[in-house]
Amino acid sequence: MNDELELVREWDAGATPLNGPAKALARHRLLNAMAHADERTGTGLSRRHALSFVAAAAVATAVTGTAVVIGTDGSGEGGAPGARTPRLEYAAVTVLNGAAAWEREQEREPVAPRDDQFIYSKRIIKETEQKTGRVRTYTDEMWGSVGVSKPSLSMELGREMWEEPAGKGNGVWPPRKWSELKKLPQDPERLVLAILSAGSRPDGRSIGDLDEPHRYEAYWLLGELLKNPVLPQGLRPAAYEALAHVPGVKTIPGVQDSAGRTGVGIAHTGRGSHKSKYLIFDPVSYEFLGFRDERTSASGKETYTQLSHVVEWGIVDRLRQRP
């Protein structure tokens, strides 16, 4: 162990100092690599080699922002099927923190919508029937009442659907009122706990204390918040960072969005959801690209894969008005 600690002391000599997120990521990789090194015998990485690999990866994070994490599912190149060979993949925390950084570089303080206005958005949905491979593309438009005091109009796969005004004391998630959005904390951990307290109330526990249903609920609620096309400055990157704090998020490399762009998915491993529902990011810039979901027909006989992304949005004064 003394040799390993000496290696950790030496590897960063002359390297660019790590910032807070990079340090946390490096620590995660270090523990992950050590754990897997303990499991390997014979042909696997030694603990010292695992530490060397993680140290180099941490330096790469500080210099380039690119991160890797060691996996051991036997899918690494050059290994026999089923062999416990190292595999490299994007770490979820790297993708999400990268998305937050990209968003902060792009965003500007938006014009705050009034409660008597509507949030307009247009999204493209590419839906594939899983059995036949038949693909249909829909253009859905939505007009959401900001103050939820007026009827809202949305389209679902080309069909119009009306939402009645919310009654007194009732609201919607994500909030549309600017005053409510502004109240949401932008500290990642506090944001996770704040949105849960508005839902199933986790009784003041820390994120580490959340059980699996609450973890998945936090992932889902944050994903719904990110579907809102207009948010106060700083809230969207905070939501990405909050997702990185939710235990159980993972990456799914090599996925495509509704525009045909290849990206990396961010999903939650609970309830089997990681195979069907996730957010998609550019694998280099970490720009958010869109969503993937699944639906089942009313008969239960057909299952569809849905890919979607927003192509236009704005603030308007009345229903059916476009920016």
Secondary structure layout plus pairing:
Layout (H helix, E strand, L loop, with lengths): L1 H10 L8 H20 L7 H18 L4 E3 L15 E3 L2 H15 L11 E12 L5 E11 L6 E5 L2 E5 L14 H6 L4 H10 L14 H15 L8 H11 L3 E8 L5 E7 L9 E4 L6 E9 L6 E14 L7
Antiparallel strand pairs: 1-2, 3-4, 3-11, 4-5, 5-6, 7-8, 8-9, 9-10, 10-11
Helix pairs in contact: 1-3, 2-3, 4-8, 6-7, 6-8, 7-8
What does this structure look like?
33% of the residues lie in helices and 25% in strands. The protein is α+β, with helices and mostly antiparallel strands and 323 residues long. Strand 10 and strand 11 form a beta hairpin. The model is unreliable at 1-16 and 18-90 (pLDDT under 50). It starts with a helix and ends in a 7-residue tail after the last strand. Helix 1 runs parallel beside helix 3 (47-64), helix 2 packs antiparallel against helix 3 and helix 4 (92-106) runs antiparallel to helix 8. The protein has helices at 2-11, 20-39, 47-64, 92-106, 178-183, 188-197, 212-226, 235-245, and strands at residues 69-71, 87-89, 118-129, 135-145, 152-156, 159-163, 249-256, 262-268, 278-281, 288-296, 303-316.
